[in-house]
């Protein structure tokens, strides 16, 4: 009895030590970067500038180290050659619990439990958001973008913020592509932006009721997308029918409304940066305009320069974290045979922004080069580190089982937005330079600018 009680007390003490300081380092585990604050750990530093913190830790401790973040041990793996080993270790490193936690905190829904229903839902995403199934959505997106450009521009010059303009166009076109014409207006955009503004704190566990007006804004968005409109996309209508089979009516509504955020949150800033970078790069802008005017938008694969420029913008402005939960005590073998020990309940994290700004992989990494992702022959370029090919050189959409299933549509949308804006509009920037990235959203996807970029816009005069 005493031995059992002693064991329980030791385990409870170990758990408390982990949550407060990171606990003791066991043999084979990565080095622990001791925090200044108990429990909070490095959370505040991550909120200020994630990549700066990770670079400092990497210089001192190497490519693998452990941080304490709000009572949770997180093992950061910074060598991009080891990314595939992390993403493939699905028996020991899982994502479902993390996705469920974020979805419940931020949107109030509960993911369907593991089983046939969840498997069917995941298959549906991957089958209906790529290859041939993507063509109708892309064609509809082009149509709605053209309508939105006409709606928000005129024949005379209008002075406005480029980010605000990009957000209005992308939000209107994206919502109408998925949910039907007329569903998006300025009020809907404000409700979305209120939801998006507080997403980092919601995902961290702060209750939604702590933010004035958030619950009402979220409910208004839900009312807009439920029930289905007759001209909603086939993808959304079929998804709604599938959700009705595998979850409760209220949870179906919450899951349906959550895709509003998922389809917009990263696309809005990505569209802004893709256009802003090209406006600041006259040779790149001229090359993209020439390519689009020669080949049109009938097949986006025939626009490699435009595709490369979007990839380059994403390299510079995306700062996502790919996180896995350690399901059981295990060892993980990394590149070059190095092995680390992991404990059940810990988390493993990849921060691709470190790779995206690595001068060994991307020379002159802080500069925008529109053709960086093109080889001399015009095909995709390969990138190397320590003489080895980097297997996944660009990760703006996550990786492995948590990779965004809508990434192909999002990429097409940003390509269409930038290409149409440059060929249909006259845009003059009214200030030099680009605004800084908003680092307070680090780890959550594409970063917004800290301020807008003043410009003036009009439709191109007709010949």
UniProtKB/TrEMBL annotation:
GO terms for biological process: cholesterol homeostasis; lipid metabolic process. Pathway: Lipid metabolism; bile acid biosynthesis. It comes from the Bacteria. One of its GO terms (molecular function) is steroid hydroxylase activity. Signal peptide: none annotated. Its main location: endoplasmic reticulum. InterPro entries: CYP450_sterol_14alpha_dmase (IPR050529), Cyt_P450 (IPR001128), Cyt_P450_CYP7A1-type (IPR024204), Cyt_P450_E_grp-IV (IPR002403), Cyt_P450_sf (IPR036396). It is found in: Endoplasmic reticulum membrane. The keyword tRNA processing does not apply. Heme binds at residue 404. Its cofactor is heme. Keywords: Endoplasmic reticulum, Heme, Iron, Lipid metabolism, Membrane, Metal-binding, Oxidoreductase. Belongs to the cytochrome P450 family. This is Oxysterol 7-alpha-hydroxylase. It comes from Nannocystis exedens.
